Amino acid sequence: MSWALILAMSIIVFCNRYIFLEPRIRLKLPHILQRMLHYSAPCLLTAMCIPVIFYDAQQFRPILTNAYLYAALATCAIYLMTKHLLTSAILGFISFYLLYYGVFTA
């Protein structure tokens, strides 16, 4: 990659973020675009988590011994029961630790 390309991409990213974060710039997005942006965080989180849960390097993790999958399902279930993000994250970490180092040790 050339330095010019890196510099150009840095300027583009900075300008995109500056427009939305600068309070003096009055940018009003259409209602449909605002509704669509509500889904960006869950989509990004899904795109980041799915490969970690289901793939180990270049191969598919076995479903029956996949501690990542069971911990993710436990975390989702805990969140649906409690509706408290911090509690579900902490209990999800604990469930992953117990599954990974306790139940599914080789």
Describe the model.
The mean pLDDT is 90. It is built from five helices and two strands. The protein has 106 residues and is mainly alpha-helical. Strand 1 and strand 2 (59-60) form a beta hairpin. The chain is extended, with a radius of gyration of 20 Å. The termini are far apart. It has a domain at 30-103. It has helices spanning 3-21, 31-37, 40-54, 67-82, 85-103; strands at 55-56, 59-60. Helix content is 72%, strand content 4%. It has a two-stranded antiparallel ribbon. Helix 4 (67-82) runs antiparallel to helix 5 (85-103). The longest helix is centred in the N-terminal third of the chain and has 19 residues, at 3-21.
- Biggest pleated-sheet summary: 2 strands, antiparallel
Which structural class do the helices and strands define? mainly alpha
Main-sheet strand order equals 1-2
Low-confidence runs of at least 5 consecutive residues: none
* Count of individual beta strands: 2
Give the helix level as a range of percent. over 70%
Quick recap of the structure?
With 106 residues, the chain is mainly alpha-helical.
Highlighted features:
single chain, 106 residues, mainly alpha, two-stranded antiparallel sheet, 2 strands, extended, membrane, Branched-chain amino acid transporter, transmembrane, Brnchd-chn_aa_trnsp_AzlD, transmembrane helix
Write the layout of secondary structure elements.
Layout: H1 3-21, H2 31-37, H3 40-54, E1 55-56, E2 59-60, H4 67-82, H5 85-103
Antiparallel strand pairs: 1-2
Helix pairs in contact: 4-5
